[in-house]
Amino acid sequence: MKSILLAFVASAAMFIAGTASAQEYTIKYSFADVDQPGENAAAAHAYVFKDALERLSGGRIKVDLFPNGQLGDAKSMAQQIRRGTIGVASFSSGVFASLYYPKLGVLDLPFLYRTRAEMVDVLSTDNDYMKKLVDDIATETGVRILGFEPYGFRNFTTASREIREPADLAGLKMRTQEIVPHQEMMRALGATPTPIPFMELYSSLQTGVVDGEENPLATILQQKFYQVQKHLTLSGHLMTIAGIFVNEKWYQSLPDDLKAAVVAANKEASLAYAGIGAVQDVLALKALQENGMQAYAPTAEQMAKFRDATTGAVRSWAEKEYGREFVDGFFSHVETASK
Q1: I need a surface site. Which of 96, 147, 202, 262 has the fewest CB within 10 A?
Q2: Kind of pairing, strands 61-66 and 143-158?
Q3: Packing angle between helix 128-141 and helix 324-338, nearest 10 degrees?
Q4: Each residue of 263-291: pLDDT tens digit?
Q5: Phi and psi for 207 in degrees, rounded to 5?
Q6: What does 163-224 look like in DSSP terms, one character per residue?
Q7: How many CA atoms lie within 13 A of 244 on its CB side?
C-alpha cells in the first residue's frame, strides 16, 4: 500500500512539474464590458479565446481575464497594449484610430454596413486589403489587430426629446465615444458631440451633463441606461466595431506554432462574438421596452434623411483627413466585399 501511495505521489509530482514546464507565457486579456459571457459579446469572445488558446497551445500559453474595466477604459487599454503591459484587449477600433492610426477611422463612417455578416466579410483580416492594412498598422504602431468584431448597431437614446429625424437632434448635447468620425456625424446632424469615457456615461446622463447618447441595444440594457433615458430611436446609424488587439512585439516573439494558435483561437472566439451579439440585441429590445423605454422605428423616408444628412458630409470630411485616394480605395473594397 505504501509503495502504491509513493508511486501515486511521484506520478502527481511529475504531472505538476510537466504542466509547469509546459507553460511558457502568461498574458492578460482586458475588456471593459460586464463579465457575462452568456449575455455580452465581448465577454463571450474573451472566454472562448482563453479556452481555445490554452488548449491549442498545449498549455504553453495561459490567459488571465480582466473584465469590467479593471485595467482601464478603452483609451487606457490602447496605451497599455502598446507598452506591452496588457497582452490582449478588446475595445473600439475607433478609439485606437483616434490615438495612434487615424486612417483606421474610415471603418467608423455612418451607414457602411447593412448587417453584422456583411461587416464581418468586409473587415475580415483574411482578405488582401485588410491584411495589408493590419500589417501596416502593426509596423507603424507596435500593435497588431487580430480581427474586427461586430459589437452592434448603435441607436440614439434621449432623456426628454423623441428623435424621429435629423431635425430632432438639433441643439442636443449627445455623448459620443472619443472617435472623431462619430463626432463629425453628430455635427452633421446638428447635435453637439460630447466625448465622455464609458465608465462615466451613466452618471453624466443622470446629472444632465449630456441630453442623450447612442449605443448598441445590449449595451443600453446591460448598463441600465433605460433608468436615465426615456426615448430610444432604432436608427442603426453606426456599427460599433471592436478590435482584438495584441502587442506586436509579444506576438512576433512567439514561435510559428503559437502564432498559429493565437490566430486560430481568435477565429474560434469570433464565432461566439457575432452569435452572442446578434441574439442579445434581439432580446435587449424587448427588455428595454419592458423597463419603460419608448422605442421608435424611423420610416424609410426618415432613415433616408439620416443617410442624406451624414454620409456625404462625413465622407467629405474623411477625404480631407485621410486622403481621397485612401477613402476611395476603402469604399471600393467595401463594395467588392459586400458582393
Answers
A1: 202
A2: unpaired
A3: 140
A4: 999 999 999 999 999 998 889 999 999 99
A5: -95, 0
A6: -SSGGGGTT-EEEE-S-HHHHHHHHHTT-EEEE--GGGHHHHHHTTSSSEEEE-HHHHHHTT
A7: 28
Query: What is the bridge-based pairing of β-strands 61-66 and 25-31?
Result: parallel
DSSP element (H, E) containing 55: helix 41-56
Q: Which of 250, 263, 278 is nearest to 115 (CA)?
A: 278
Quote the CA–CA distance of 72 and 92 in Å, as a whole number.
13
Q: Which three cell numbers stand for residue 223?
A: 448598463
Sorted by where each begins, the domain ranges of the chain are 18-338
Q: Look-up: residue for cell 486622403?
A: 323
Region 18-338: CATH code: 3.40.190.170
Residue 230 three-state SS: coil
> Model pTM?
0.84
232: cell is: 430610444
Chain length of the chain: 339
pLDDT digits (tens, 9 = 90+) for 17-35: 444 446 799 999 999 998 9
